[in-house]
Amino acid sequence: MANFLSDLIQYRGLFQMILVLGIGGSFPYGFHISVINYPSLHIRKFINETWIERYGYPLHQETIMLLWSFIVSVYGIGGLLGSLYCGYLTTKYRKKKCQIVTNLIMLVAALFMGFCKMAKSFEMILIGRLLYGIGTGFSLTIHPQYVGEISPKKLRGFSNSTVSVFLTLGKFLGQIIGLRELLGSESLWPLLLASTGLTALIQLVTLPFFPDSPSYLLIQKGNEDAFMKAIKQLWGEGDHQAEIDDILKEKAAMKNSKTLRVLEIFKERSLRWQLYILVTIMTTLQLSGVNAIYFYSFEVFRTARFKEDLIPYISLGVGMCEWLSSIVCSSLIERFGRKILLCGGYVLMIFVLTLLTMTLSLQHQFLWMHYFSVTLIFSFVICFGIGPSGATVSIMTEIFSQSFRPSAFLINGCINWMCLFVLGMIFPYIVGSLGPFCFLIFLGILVFSSIFIYLFLPETKGKSIMEIKGEFNKLNFGRKQAVGTENNLSKEHTFCTKL
What we know:
The chain is mostly helical. Helices cover 77% and strands 1% of the residues. The N and C termini lie far apart (47 Å).
């Protein structure tokens, strides 16, 4: 505790910037995933009433459901678009400037949402939802990169894990203010959907007072004065020579560089195993079953005979558990390392998911199984939050050097949004066909990933980017070639993130 307080004092500029980045970074992503479900009945009613007022006759229920489904899914389309163009734009115009522009997009989206009812236009909800998707597609790509680049080595794991803290906080607060007693009522739901305009405004006003990342200023811009000024503002007074030397080594490794298109990253031998790890952990993050747990929890709470009015509040407990467990992860990640938290989280989730499949399949035979299932739902979310939720983001940031990070996160964004879209489209059909046994699919994914990560992921705790790169060289080139390859790799490339 004493060490944390001393770090908080010395690195107060860093912690302030982490807060500012989180407010407008991963927070809106989590918020808009959870909040859209609460005003669903009000929005569908608004669509029908608007149509009647325009054309004099009501819409069919199937048409209303189709429009509602499109409102939900267009967020993923926008997120994919934002991710696709973010890498190229951040490379050309820098992350800080792109994040500021992202806030403007979010503010425009909030205006569309806030005035849709007054304008009697459900099309404004579609446009606002698309713009929110584009904005969060940018933010979710920029936030983890920015946080990882501004942090010293000893705090890098903690800083990276705060991405999941703000994401889960967004989910949790979306659940809270989405209650009908707050902004989830029929009269206030436009304000509910527009409320993240406030976080965008806060970041828009405060972010210009913080610097670009030190590694960007030195490696990309070659501005040593701005580099030292940024380090002093973020890390305070003290001996930071070891960190500076690591950044200089990374800059020296990038001296001879050429441009590659983003699709050519898959052909680069020096990045082969980093990409295997990236694809595995990101696919597992989305297909671990946690989204399915949220979907299934309402049904479990109903079969456990909780009153219908109490279910939204019990669901708040699920969101709060995920948020609190992500905070626990951020406090443990520098002590135990990324690999232990990731593999340990996978193993615990496998155990809980096995029990949950059994209890759900037997819940109609034994009444007490309902309550056991509720306990297991909370346990699964806690295991996810402490393990994969925070550790995944840290690993993604650390296994790629400064020059490769924009392209790597473009790939990461595509995987994230595509998995989210596919899961949303096919999961209801999987549940209809398999029932509680649908969790066996996620169970198989977790088993494969835990074995793969245990065998092939090197621990990144306390290591510089170049040291981590050396560990992967042993996998990419073989142990015998790794030593000779350190100074003579296939040239490190700066990616132009155009497809």
